[in-house]
Design goal:
Blueprint (H helix, E strand, L loop, with lengths): L10 H14 L1 H8 L3 H13 L4 H4 L6 H35 L45
Amino acid sequence: MRGLPRREYTLDFKHDAVRRAAELGPCATARELGLPEQTLRNWIRAGREGRLDEAWRSGAGVTPDRMEQTRADAEQARQYRRQQLRSVIASASASRAAMPSAPPTSTSTASAPGVGASSPASPAPRTQALHSPSLPLPRLHRH
């Protein structure tokens, strides 16, 4: 499975994010802007060291059109991953529904009076695994 495309941001966006982080703090700003917190912290450090503008001056700048295309690619990749997760969950629930249930436990109905009570039936062994090896585990990332 292909990972999410690398997101790119304009220099103005970076400067605005660094200014906003000075007001609100990096955690709240990153959450508000939908950025990984470490990315914002890297921009803050680069701004302090005077390196934030270097990438722009070197010709590796990001245009707003390219930024929008990157966002669209990221959204498409997220939708693909959600679809894959839904299919894994659906196939897992279908295979679980198709598995036979545990056999009923038998209890003694013909006990003679005065004879000791029969021992309680032991629970049926668990035969179903929580995860079938034939199904791939989805990768979930938190940012």
